[in-house]
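stage 2 :: seqdesign
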């Protein structure tokens, strides 16, 4: 059984390593006769789409769903802040938060489903590289905008240079405030950037609004994260009697959780097609060809 769980964890995480725990502890529980006949009740809170044979998906508030054997919550939903307290009060149930680390402190019935943000940033850079290569600019420039997140900016630059090696990558650092992020984006555009990328939240919204103001595209990390993939996987495991808790499960391109979710409509259809092909190459472990 232990060996089987290791194989399962590798399938989930792509066995790529992410600088944090790639494997959550897992327990097995046989479904009751009623559950086997009707399907496993699974609560889902937030913008997640889950369709798994053998699972009966229920939607409602976190408190209403707390009696279900498994409850999956999107980190984008306000209820995510309450999951830890609800899990403590319900040691029989199991909980998973999509898009948030839940390691500190670990709870045996709570798992975090986190993404390989380095891969998402790299894919964002690949898209930026495709955009500037389409323009065939002699001195192409792109920009990472927002607080100083040097590792993600470095991954972004790696993706850019895989497609367009001579492109200049600007680091437009700013305070984590919408006005500051927009100002940084506009400054980068004034320096010749033709596309900007930011991590997320109100900062990314503001940076992309600044790019749109100048009729340039912008992308954010969440454009390359597919939260339905990890949500579906933990539900599928639960239907098979396997529940995760205590640490984080890490999902990346190899598991299908990092890919093209949405692209700025200012990116041409031809470039969007090339971007999706590059995402598939990344998922298969091949270097993107552009």
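stage 2 :: out
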């Amino acid at each position: 059984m232990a060996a089987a769980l290791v194989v399962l964890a590798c399938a989930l995480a792509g066995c790529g390593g992410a600088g944090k725990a790639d494997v959550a502890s897992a327990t097995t529980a046989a479904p009751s006769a009623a559950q086997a006949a009707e399907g496993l009740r699974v609560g889902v809170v937030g913008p997640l789409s889950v369709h798994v044979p053998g699972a009966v998906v229920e939607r409602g508030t976190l408190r209403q769903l707390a009696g279900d054997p498994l409850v999956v919550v999107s980190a984008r939903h306000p209820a995510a802040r309450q999951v830890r307290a609800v899990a403590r009060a319900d040691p029989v149930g199991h909980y998973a938060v999509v898009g948030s680390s839940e390691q500190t402190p670990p709870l045996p019935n709570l798992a975090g489903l986190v993404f390989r943000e380095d891969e998402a940033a790299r894919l964002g850079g690949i898209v930026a590289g495709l955009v500037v290569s389409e323009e065939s600019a002699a001195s192409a420039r792109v920009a990472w905008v927002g607080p100083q997140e040097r590792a993600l900016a470095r991954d972004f630059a790696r993706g850019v240079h895989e497609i367009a090696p001579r492109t200049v990558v600007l680091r437009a650092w700013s305070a984590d405030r919408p006005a500051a992020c927009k100002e940084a984006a506009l400054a980068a555009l004034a320096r010749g950037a033709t596309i900007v990328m930011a991590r997320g939240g109100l900062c990314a919204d503001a940076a992309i609004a600044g790019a749109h103001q100048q009729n340039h595209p912008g992308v954010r990390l969440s454009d390359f994260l597919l939260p339905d993939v990890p949500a579906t996987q933990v539900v599928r495991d639960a239907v098979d009697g396997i529940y995760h808790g205590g640490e984080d499960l890490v999902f990346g391109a190899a598991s299908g959780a990092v890919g093209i979710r949405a692209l700025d409509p200012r990116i041409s259809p031809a470039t969007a097609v090339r971007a999706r092909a590059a995402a598939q190459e990344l998922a298969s472990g091949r270097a993107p060809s552009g």
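stage 3 :: structure notes
- Residues 1-24 have pLDDT under 50 and may be disordered.
- The first helix runs from residue 2 to 13.
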